[in-house]
Design a protein that fits this description.
With about 140 residues, the protein is α/β, with parallel strands linked by helices. It contains five helices and six strands.
Length: about 140
């Protein structure tokens, strides 16, 4: 099983595998779970942690990978829509647009940019076409 090696996405992969019934974690709500937090592994999965983009390159070498649709599509290894199990849309993993408190934008260019991502069907269609999955964006507050 190939999973990303960064803390957030490694935990995300483990939580997804827990939801799929492949493993059991100590605490499903721990968003920084590691392989050491696995309490049941009935299929005896062995975990290999690699840089996120490299998960797609492991497609032909591993029995199971946790990969992001845009990495799979860019690597041209498989159709991202053919996943065995998909992570439900979860806003805690959404893309956030943030800025420093001391930044001021007199022309509101950043607000216009964010609004284009949030409200444009055209942008959503391009992201779906180019990255193989719907991308969801959380507005800045």
């Amino acid at each position: 099983m190939v999973i990303p090696n960064d803390p957030v996405n490694s935990a995300r992969a483990l939580i997804l595998m827990h939801r799929a019934g492949l493993i059991q974690l100590k605490d499903l709500n721990n968003e920084l779970s590691t392989v050491q937090d696995i309490i049941q592994n009935p299929k005896q999965l062995q975990f290999i942690e690699v840089e996120g983009p490299q998960t797609a390159h492991a497609y032909n070498d591993a029995d199971l990978i946790f990969g992001f649709p845009h990495y799979l599509k860019m690597a041209k290894v498989t159709d991202p829509h053919s996943a065995l199990f998909l992570d439900p849309i979860d806003k805690k993993y959404a893309i956030l647009f943030v800025t420093r408190k001391d930044y001021s934008d007199p022309n509101q260019k950043l607000a216009i940019f964010v609004k284009a991502f949030q409200n444009s069907k055209h942008v959503q269609e391009i992201l779906d076409r180019d990255f193989g999955s719907k991308m969801w964006f959380e507005g800045w507050k």
